[in-house]
Amino acid sequence: MTDSLSTHALHDLSVHDMALALRNKQVSSVELAQHFLQRSRDHAHLGAFVAIDETTTLAQAQAADRRIAQGSVGALEGVPIAHKDIFVTKDFATTAGSRMLKGYRSPFDATVVAKLAADGAVTLGKLNCDEFAMGSSNENSAIAPVGQDTVTPVRNPWNAERIPGGSSGGSAAAVAARLAPAATGTDTGGSIRQPAAFCGITGIKPTYGRASRYGMVAFASSLDQAGPMARSAQDCALLLSSLCGPDLDRDSTSLDMPAENYGRSLQDSIEGLRIGVPQEFFGEGLSADVRASVEAALKQYEQLGAKLVPISLPRTELSIPVYYIIAPAEASSNLSRFDGVKFGHRAKDYGDLADMYKKTRAEGFGDEVKRRIMIGTYVLSHGYYDAYYLQAQKIRRMIADDFQNAFKQCDVIAGPVAPTVAWKLGEKSDDPVANYLADIFTLPASLAGLPGMSIPVGFAQAPQDKGMPVGMQLIGNYFSEARLLNAAHRFQQATDFHVARPAGY
Questions:
Q1: Strands 182-187 and 202-205
Q2: Which of 2, 49, 470, 476 could, after both became Cys, cross-link 458 (CB 3.0–4.6 A)?
Q3: Which of 102, 88, 189, 158 is nearest to 441 (CA)?
């Protein structure tokens, strides 16, 4: 460990090594916090952070140092991390990337935030995201990042003219640029996995219900799930072990299952692991660069002793229309609370109550949010409920059944995270459907409530995309997070894609 600290800059240390160095008193939490706060200032042009409070962060770090001095050490004692701005926090404003909540201060911390804090984590600040987590590019945020006067999109550290992915784009960019060793994200239809892939980091969405949704600003209640984003599977396992666990009194969707040590089987052999390769994930529309990197990663798995098994997920294409009926329907219901009455934005000039509602929501919500609310309200309305919403729920069940049939033949499923690498800022802004289509490989696992993760497996070679990261998705059966993390860790021990860094960071 001493060697690691002497040969690496502080921001290059893994969460695992950082926790060890803190316990061994080789570095203090205050030093780490100051180092990362300085880095966030130096690279403010990325637009990753939307809230920073140095006084609060350093006070948390000092408290962690005191606990370390007393020998009372949590698993993440003194480690600085940052939170997606979808989790409510007492000490930092929570906006969910929306004008509707600009400047909002929660009276409590989200369970995920509280759990990580209970294990000693120090909060660096809040990270940018698509408004109410609705988006695949992080271009839908309505909040100006720290250090900037105007609303600007988060930039990808690998190429500042490209999107970082969404909706957890700020989280992915911050981890990739070493502005935070790890971050929290949320995944409704791919919002951890896709930005992780586009920024060349590791991210995992656990089984639906494993992580509490209490204090997460709701988008689609039957899909939203919190998870960690870090540079390696080892770090993700450490964070996931802290943030998961039952929260039955406060979250009706929380599973009554004890917390787990997700790192328990990281070193297990993957000899004989059956990796299912769905033919539907390798059809038309998949870029040659993504295909080549994912296929090379699958060959690497074979060298490590795994077996590739051809499988079929026949309803993959239906996941897009199903998701974009169910998720907006739930969003339409969840976002009805933002009406200007109790909290959040309220229009200044209005006639009566109905006028206040209309003007508040017209001013407070961005275009994409309005679009999804209208779609959701339409599919839930009389005469359309049966035709759209009920049908979508039936197909959702069938998609889950497809996975269960596939898992009779394999242990994990592998394929691309997205059909392409990260695209240019503004390239798909005028075409919402093009954005939606980019989620085709992540949506099926979300609809089924399965755990899924993204690991970096290569870089694009085509001249127009050269050097942009490619991610591979691993999907497991319910509650098989430890197996997924083991498969990812063994791959990362044999390759070095996860340690690659964007130039200048």
A1: unpaired
A2: 470
A3: 189
Q: Tens digit of pLDDT for each residue in 386-396?
A: 999 999 999 99
* Domains of the chain, CATH where assigned: 2-243 (3.90.1300.10)
DSSP annotation string for 105-121: --SS--HHHHHHHHTT-
Q: How many CA atoms lie within 13 A of 465 on its CB side?
A: 19
Helix/strand/coil percentages in the chain, nearest 5: 40, 15, 45
Q: What are phi and psi of 311, to 5 degrees?
A: -135, 170
| Omega within 30 of 0 (cis) for the link into 167 | yes
- Three-state SS annotation for 66-82: HHHHCCCCCCCCCCEEE
Contacts of 279 (CB under 8 A, 6+ apart): 310, 311, 312
Residues with catalytic roles: 84, 167, 191
Beta-carbon contacts of residue 221 (< 8 Å; ≥ 6 apart): 213, 253, 330, 334
Helices (H), 247-348: 288-303, 319-334
